[in-house]
Amino acid sequence: MTICVFGAGSIGCYVGGRLAATGTPVTFVGREAMREQVSGGIHLRGRDGGSLEVTPDFGTDPAVVGDADLVVVTVKSGANKQVADQLRPLLAAGAVVLNLQNGIHGGAELRDRLPGHRVVTGMVGFNVVRDGASFQQTTAGEIMAATDPVWETYGAAFATAGVPVEQRSDMDAVLRAKLLLNLNNAINALSGLPLRTELSDRSFRRCLSLAQQEALRVMARSGPAPARLTALSPSLMARALRVPDRVFQRLGSKVLAIDPTARSSMADDLAAGRPTEVDWINGAVVDLAGEVDLEAPVNARLVALVHDAERAIHPRWTGAELLNALR
Ligand SMILES: NC(=O)C1=CN([C@@H]2O[C@H](COP(=O)(O)OP(=O)(O)OC[C@H]3O[C@@H](n4cnc5c(N)ncnc54)[C@H](OP(=O)(O)O)[C@@H]3O)[C@@H](O)[C@H]2O)C=CC1
Ligand SMILES: CC(C)(CO)C(=O)C(=O)O
């Protein structure tokens, strides 16, 4: 039972690190800059505050993937096609691929390019903040993945590692629900604020409400309906975001139960000068809308604003400014 984490950054090092720290053989493939940071050892802090230390078997040579039975792909969406091209000649016969990514098309993108291999679609419901070689899970949440025989072999290892996998037979609906939550990634990135501060501001929540309601209209026409991943249903959540701050502090206390340092993965990308996943998140809503003869101007505007921010054009917005730009 050997796992290879391919594209090991925040999610890959955290999930793979927990597996390695609890006795599962894991190899990590990632960038040289990451190897330099983590090869002396990584520190993993769980949501319960407990810590694990492990020295990862981290390299930059993709060839090690050939020894793995399970390959966990944790690159950002834009790298999927290139990664599939790298994996195709290297994967062992019978190796299973698990993609742990935001967006709704990652699994299919890999599946189309890796004929002969099972690609299991997964989703990470929690946030991880990296600080050098320290990886901290800053929100509650689970990994969800498509029901598959692979979990008979690996399910116990993920559970022991403190990253249990909930098998779902409705992964498309799960990915759509996560997409709705991730519409905040762009707003969070443009705010320049930690998630908790941003979501405590009604103007930013109203921006998210606009983006989610637009996405819900599109999803209502294109099916499947998004799964319910939070205490409130997706449509109720989109409405509840608009309530005044004091009411939201009570109503949305679970939403705000976030470590004060946590930021969305898109905020990390913007801060590090990397291309963002906005085309795969808000852009996915625009694409879905096009397929059913609708328009999605709020999400289209967010895509454009994040692309501007990637080029250092108006990278920071107040809640009021952003709300004005989206209405
Ligand atoms: N971070 C979080 O809290 C959460 C993230 N997610 C999702 O999980 C996925 C992974 O996110 P995250 O871990 O934050 O991403 P990171 O950017 O931290 O990690 C991905 C790593 O893969 C590297 N990489 C890209 N292409 C290759 C390649 N061909 N070979 C080797 N390494 C490669 C990247 O390097 P480089 O940057 O140089 O390309 C980067 O170091 C995304 O879809 C994200 O949206 C979901 C929930 C929470
Ligand atoms: C966990 C969450 C929703 C936090 O924003 C996320 O998926 C991300 O940062 O990409």
Automatic annotation (TrEMBL):
<dbReference type="Pfam" id="PF02558">
    <property type="entry name" value="ApbA"/>
</dbReference>
<dbReference type="GO" id="GO:0050661">
    <property type="term" value="F:NADP binding"/>
</dbReference>
<dbReference type="GO" id="GO:0005737">
    <property type="term" value="C:cytoplasm"/>
</dbReference>
<keyword id="KW-0521">NADP</keyword>
<keyword id="KW-0566">Pantothenate biosynthesis</keyword>
<dbReference type="InterPro" id="IPR036291">
    <property type="entry name" value="NAD(P)-bd_dom_sf"/>
</dbReference>
<dbReference type="InterPro" id="IPR013752">
    <property type="entry name" value="KPA_reductase"/>
</dbReference>
<keyword id="KW-0560">Oxidoreductase</keyword>
<comment type="pathway">
    <text>Cofactor biosynthesis; (R)-pantothenate biosynthesis; (R)-pantoate from 3-methyl-2-oxobutanoate: step 2/2.</text>
</comment>
<dbReference type="GO" id="GO:0015940">
    <property type="term" value="P:pantothenate biosynthetic process"/>
</dbReference>
<dbReference type="GO" id="GO:0008677">
    <property type="term" value="F:2-dehydropantoate 2-reductase activity"/>
</dbReference>
<dbReference type="InterPro" id="IPR008927">
    <property type="entry name" value="6-PGluconate_DH-like_C_sf"/>
</dbReference>
<dbReference type="InterPro" id="IPR013328">
    <property type="entry name" value="6PGD_dom2"/>
</dbReference>
<feature type="domain" description="Ketopantoate reductase C-terminal">
    <location>
        <begin position="174"/>
        <end position="309"/>
    </location>
</feature>
<comment type="function">
    <text>Catalyzes the NADPH-dependent reduction of ketopantoate into pantoic acid.</text>
</comment>
<dbReference type="InterPro" id="IPR013332">
    <property type="entry name" value="KPR_N"/>
</dbReference>
<protein>
    <recommendedName>
        <fullName>2-dehydropantoate 2-reductase</fullName>
        <ecNumber>1.1.1.169</ecNumber>
    </recommendedName>
</protein>
<feature type="domain" description="Ketopantoate reductase N-terminal">
    <location>
        <begin position="3"/>
        <end position="143"/>
    </location>
</feature>
<dbReference type="InterPro" id="IPR003710">
    <property type="entry name" value="ApbA"/>
</dbReference>
<dbReference type="Pfam" id="PF08546">
    <property type="entry name" value="ApbA_C"/>
</dbReference>
<dbReference type="InterPro" id="IPR050838">
    <property type="entry name" value="Ketopantoate_reductase"/>
</dbReference>
<comment type="similarity">
    <text>Belongs to the ketopantoate reductase family.</text>
</comment>
